[in-house]
Amino acid sequence: MATVTKPLVLITGANQGLGFATAQQLASTGQYNLLVAARSQEKAEGAVKQLQDSGTEGSLTPIVINLDQDESIAAAAKIVEEHFGSLDILINNAGINRSSDPNATLRESYRAVFETNVFGVAVMTATFLPLLRASKYHDRRIVNVTSGLGQIGIAYSPTSEYNAKVWELPVYRSSKSAINMISAVEAVSLEKENILVVLASPGYCRTNFGGGQGVKSAEEGARPIVRAAIEGSSKELFGKIVEDEKMLIEFGW
């Protein structure tokens, strides 16, 4: 088993976009050991090489995690347990906004997005929770990446540029609403164990996820994720969404 002297952070979907930018920002501090997760070994190793080539410091370990497959998640947890013994911070970043099948039916479209964005995240957290519980780190966290599009108030708002009249996206919106509720319940249930569950909302970013469109760069979008993972205190962040330079309380709306 490897000797870990710095907090161990696992980031899903870390081979591109917001996940890669998050890994880059955390690695640049030199204060964390990172598990760089992607759907394939090739993608994970490619991301690690790119991070190393950019001059980032710290330990970078590629790991394969396909959120659509429980066996992939379980295999990754076993690897982390065997090599490190525990996990300190989990960042559930990976997600999709539509089915990869252009001919998918409505049911298939919902199923594809929920498999990754909701079921995959729920299984990730449940599977890695024993490793978080085994950690002696003083500031254990689970960060779930959400979106303002998942907030009911924004969908209804006549003044928001992201309301449902401008952006319908019912499949993606509902998947993030589900993650918000899952996170709220987990935050309450894990508070007594001093494991913080917090939401991060990166905003509309120029990544492959959004077809290269957006008002922010991936680097800007990653900053709320990084802050949710390593800044502030559990008391300050409990029940909050970290978004840009402020924290928003998440109630039903």
UniProtKB/TrEMBL annotation:
<dbReference type="InterPro" id="IPR002347">
    <property type="entry name" value="SDR_fam"/>
</dbReference>
<protein>
    <recommendedName>
        <fullName>Short-chain dehydrogenase/reductase SDR</fullName>
    </recommendedName>
</protein>
<comment type="similarity">
    <text>Belongs to the short-chain dehydrogenases/reductases (SDR) family.</text>
</comment>
<dbReference type="Pfam" id="PF00106">
    <property type="entry name" value="adh_short"/>
</dbReference>
<keyword id="KW-0521">NADP</keyword>
<dbReference type="InterPro" id="IPR036291">
    <property type="entry name" value="NAD(P)-bd_dom_sf"/>
</dbReference>
<dbReference type="GO" id="GO:0016491">
    <property type="term" value="F:oxidoreductase activity"/>
</dbReference>
<keyword id="KW-0560">Oxidoreductase</keyword>
